Amino acid sequence: MSDENINENEEVSEAQIAVHWKEEEYFDPNPKFIEQANLKDDEILKRMGEDNFPDGFEEYAEMLDWDKKWDQVLDASNPPFFKWFVGGKLNASYNCVDRNLAKYKNKTALHFVPEPEDEPITHMTYQELYNKVNEFAAVLRDYCGLKAGDTVTLHMPMVPELPITMLACARLGVIHSQVFSGFSGKACADRIVDAKSKYLITMDSYYRGGTLIDHKEKADIACNQAAKEGFEVDKVLIWQRYPGKYSAETPMVEGRDVFVNDILKDYKFAKVDPVSLDANDTLFLMYTSGTTGKPKGAQHSIGGYMAYVTGTSKYIQDIHPEDVYWCMADIGWITGHSYIVYGPLALGASSVIFEGVPTHPDAGRPWRVAQELNVNIFHTSPTAIRALRRVGSDEPAKYDYHFKHMTTVGEPIEPNVWRWYYHTVGKDEAVIVDTWWQTETGGFLCSTLPAIHKMKPGSAGPGVPGIYPEILDDDGKPLPRGSNKAGNIVIKNPWPGRMLTIWGDDERFVDQYYKRYNTKPDSKDWRDWPYFAGDGAVEAPDGYFRILGRIDDVINVAGHRLGTKELESAALMVDEVGEAAVVPVPDPIKGVKPHVFVSLKPGFEATEALAQKVTDMLASEIGPIAKPGKVWIVPDMPKTRSGKIMRRVLGAIAAGKDPGDVTTLANPQIVEEIRKQS
Ligand code: WT7
């Protein structure tokens, strides 16, 4: 919950806050945008209306090339394990690469923008992408012996070799599990072990904030840690940031580590036929944080997922093949999978891959890239927008670029920040879509249709075509439509982009997303299985949903989900720490930042160095994005009489607010003691 309006007073309930929430003014889409839009009229809402469910989704599937057409649109006989386009066969790599050759072989598929500005931007055509995907697929198949259904873990930075690797896997039906490159070796190990990947594919180094980072180091940490957990990685394939040259200090491990560049020489111009796969086979895993410590692998399908991201890329992102599309997210997150790689390439667009930090070397960088490549669709997060606004609010005006369309995604955006995005970045020309969705959902759930709906700052909008959201109260009763009352947002119906399950844990899948509101566990009717997203939301009278934030123990830092439990368990790895509690605290740039409260084991003293040790542990265990805003070393935690740590009280103190009535605590005096530390 990053909007300053939301947390003003801890005492009022979410519902009351929603009522106090000021309505924002509407903005009309630019007529020039409407004229060229893929979706100009609202017939779609009928075609994909509830009356035409599930057949309306065939429109998305028809945007793909199928080896064999599906026999059944939706098999809902075993809820909530829904299957889409059953009987259909296709290949995702074919749909993103091969089928574009006929018309676009000489057109750029990927623009690569290296972080150092003196390194030229490179452009890879669809023909070149086709060659490279085939060659690397041959490596995976013939050198590694990988086949459909096997898993590999990728720990790759933002370089074109990442989509090449993903598409080569997809060509064979090998399930890729890309771990965000900013994650630590340890975090990578957990995901390797869970996915049981015998192969790790990584890169020697990459640029971040002006430094060439030794990334191969993390592969060693990952493999050693996996071994400790009883799992051996057979081989580590290492791409080189500068092909032919090793740019890391960490030595290669004999027998385990190999340079991709060396093996590729034997596969020059190799061709690998795309394997024809079932629509409900698995394309990839994407791990995300949940309420318990262990990250869960969202398992995405080939047919339903590809159909959904292609359809939404076309209608919500308004991607045409002629567009230069830049999504500044990282491919290591779902946004990058769906809306840098699979969706845009399936539509034959030119997709930009940016290696670096948006504000490096200065806040004009993104706008120089936009000018140089003539980018016309831009997609980023509120965190990036806030950062660019803070350090360079006048920068966009200095550059000659023009966006027709912009996206904000990942967290609620403050209306003021939205207006800066609209007026200054979009130059009053671009439409904005605020897309609400999740790793698990594959693609967008709520958004305005860019040429059809008015925009409203701070609101995601109605459900996108085919998606029927509703707000339920704690007892599962729907709140009156448009009541502006807060409750839990659910999606009433299945949709093709939703994950198949949690990798290896069907039970957790059901528990996490369906148990909350399913009252008839034996029901075979999908209507009894609303999807529980875990977000609080309100619906305004115009049918626009405004997302309030997570209702579980998940902290959304800069649009990335971190589980409080994960952070707490990392803090507890510091020897001196006895207890740890993590709370989200509003932050002007990141939306929220975690604050870590630790109490020490007896005999240890609170020092600066110890606080630093906790910070370092979070960074090394999880990654730099987990770095806390502050580490508080406290004499004791405020606790209930049953011994539960009162995170709510800590959260109020950290945010400089009144913790309210604390007299019922087991140790009320501690509250004042902690407060003195702020
Ligand atoms: C959580 C999902 C969606 C891909 C990137 C993050 C929050 C997402 C919005 C939005 C308000 C949003 C929700 C959601 N969220 N988009 N437009 N407005 N909140 O994916 O890591 O799976 O996180 O991000 O809380 O549940 P994720």
Mean pLDDT: 93
Number of strands: 30
Order of strands, widest sheet = 12-11-8-6-7-14-15-23
Described by strand count, sense and barrel closure, the largest sheet is: 8 strands, mixed
Q: So how many helices?
A: 20
Task: Give the percentage of residues in beta strands.
Answer: 15-25%
Give the low-confidence spans: 1-20
> How far apart are the termini?
22 Å
Structural class by secondary-structure content: alpha/beta
Rg for CA atoms: 24 Å
Helix content: 25-40%
The gross shape turns out to be globular
Bound molecules: 5'-O-[(S)-butoxy(hydroxy)phosphoryl]adenosine
Can you walk through the features of this model?
Helix 14 links the parallel strand 18 and strand 19 (405-409). The strands form 8 sheets. An 8-stranded mixed sheet has the order 12-11-8-6-7-14-15-23, with helices on both faces. It contains 20 helices and 30 strands. The protein has 678 residues and is of the alpha/beta class. Helices cover 29% and strands 22% of the residues. The structure holds 5'-O-[(S)-butoxy(hydroxy)phosphoryl]adenosine. 5'-O-[(S)-butoxy(hydroxy)phosphoryl]adenosine binds at residues 288, 333-335, 409-412, 434-439, 460, 533-535, 547, 549-550, 556, 559-561.
From the structure above, extract its key features.
29% helix; binds 5'-O-[(S)-butoxy(hydroxy)phosphoryl]adenosine; 7-stranded mixed sheet; alpha/beta; 678 residues
Gist of the model:
By secondary structure, the chain is α/β, with parallel strands linked by helices. Mean pLDDT is 93; it is low at 1-20.
Write the layout of secondary structure elements.
Blueprint: H1 14-20, H2 31-36, H3 43-47, H4 58-61, E1 72-75, E2 83-86, E3 89-90, H5 92-104, E4 108-113, E5 122-125, H6 126-143, E6 151-155, H7 161-172, E7 175-178, H8 185-195, E8 199-203, E9 205-208, E10 211-214, H9 216-228, E11 235-239, E12 257-259, H10 260-264, E13 277-278, E14 282-288, E15 296-301, H11 303-315, E16 324-327, H12 334-346, E17 350-354, H13 365-373, E18 377-380, H14 382-392, E19 405-409, H15 415-425, E20 431-435, E21 469-472, E22 487-491, E23 501-502, H16 506-513, E24 531-539, E25 545-550, E26 554-557, E27 560-563, H17 564-571, E28 577-587, E29 591-600, H18 608-621, E30 630-633, H19 647-654, H20 669-675
Parallel strand pairs: 4-17, 6-7, 6-8, 7-14, 8-11, 11-12, 16-17, 16-18, 18-19, 19-20, 29-30
Antiparallel strand pairs: 1-2, 3-13, 4-5, 9-10, 14-15, 15-23, 21-22, 22-24, 24-25, 26-27, 28-29
Helix pairs in contact: 5-6, 5-7, 5-12, 6-7, 8-9, 11-12, 14-15
5'-O-[(S)-butoxy(hydroxy)phosphoryl]adenosine (WT7) is lined by residues 288, 333-335, 409-412, 434-439, 460, 533-535, 547, 549-550, 556, 559-561.
